[in-house]
Write a structure and sequence with these properties.
Length: 328
């Protein structure tokens, strides 16, 4: 059976990031910073015939799937294979600056069900988790090489796992008998490490540890603040940028950065004279994050934790707008 990723908050994205104004009378440009299988892009191109989209993704395999899905749109869609922070840092000169930018920070169902890289503990797969094979360290490398304390800190910080120290200790003990190479083996170690009553909660006890490893392997939280800032710098004045998050760590980064953009001054209190420019750089279009409807949650359970935040650019931001944004 062919599995197709369902884009989350699709109707909300189409509404909040609709191309409007004079720029859309002829055409508008959008960057889908996390193209995946092209679900959001397909629907934006279908609904807005004067829109063209640049699809960015670090994973060449999933991008090939998107190319096939989007072939009917011809030259209205362009592709960039690489990390989105690199894309925005060195925005290609051949592209017009975007009117719209979307980040969907979720992981595609493809990676869990088809990639065979150990993203899911439901299958017995090589413990890799890299979205791009050029990344130096795989999940297996971290599991087998990190000192116990550092491994526990990683699981706690990125996975918010309360039993991180028990899990890390169990991993270190297990690897004394040989490298831990498979997702199934790691999941079993975690299962046996946690208290019995924790094994039958609302989520599998390995869920948070696997999330933490995936985040660490791909540098997801490290690259997010600078990516948001660089993307906002590329955005046209009056353009809109939206970000979909799925857990509190990344949502905190987005919320704090957007909040700074909405302030008239972000200089610290001890600074006597404003150095940040002293003007509001963005309008917060979503004062509170937009979540899924009950209908969407029933149809697509992974959407239950999704949050969409959107801003409209008024002026370019400065490096001061990154102050106070949680970084890792």
């Amino acid at each position: 059976m062919k599995i197709v990723h369902t884009p989350v908050l699709l109707n909300e994205c189409l509404e909040w990031l609709s191309p409007v104004g004079e720029s859309y009378e002829n055409h508008a440009v959008m960057v889908d910073s996390t193209l995946g299988e092209g679900g959001h892009t397909f629907n934006f191109l279908s609904k807005y015939p004067k829109l063209s989209i640049i699809g960015v993704d670090a994973d060449s395999v999933i991008q090939a799937k998107a190319r096939e899905r989007l072939t009917g749109f011809g030259d209205r869609v362009h592709f960039y294979n690489g990390w989105f922070d690199d894309f925005y840092k060195n925005y290609p000169a051949e592209y017009e600056r975007p009117d719209l930018i979307l980040f969907d920070l979720g992981i595609s169902v493809f990676h869990y069900e088809e990639s065979k890289r150990g993203f899911s503990f439901r299958y017995d797969e090589k413990l890799d988790m890299r979205l791009n094979s050029n990344r130096e360290k795989s999940a297996a490398d971290l599991v087998n090489e990190l000192a116990e304390e550092k491994l526990a800190d990683l699981i706690y910080l990125y996975g918010e796992e309360k039993f991180s120290r028990r899990i890390a200790h169990a991993i270190v003990v297990a690897r004394e008998n040989g490298r831990i190479e498979s997702s199934k083996a790691l999941a079993e170690i975690i299962w046996n490490a946690v208290p019995a009553n924790y094994r039958y909660g609302s989520i599998h006890p390995a869920t948070r540890t696997f999330q933490a490893l995936r985040i660490a392997v791909n540098g997801e939280l490290e690259r997010l603040p600078r990516s948001l800032h660089a993307a906002f710098g590329c955005l046209k004045q009056g353009g809109k940028m939206g970000v979909i998050t799925f857990h509190s760590l990344e949502d905190r980064i987005v919320k704090n950065y957007f909040r700074n953009l909405g302030k008239k001054c972000v200089c610290p209190p001890e600074v006597a004279v404003c150095r940040c420019g002293g003007r509001q750089c963005a309008e917060l279009l979503t004062r509170k994050p937009v979540g899924p409807t009950e209908q969407e949650i029933k149809a697509n359970s992974p959407s239950r934790s999704a949050k969409l935040r959107v801003v409209r650019k008024l002026f370019d931001a400065t490096e001061y707008h990154l102050d106070g944004v949680v970084g890792f």
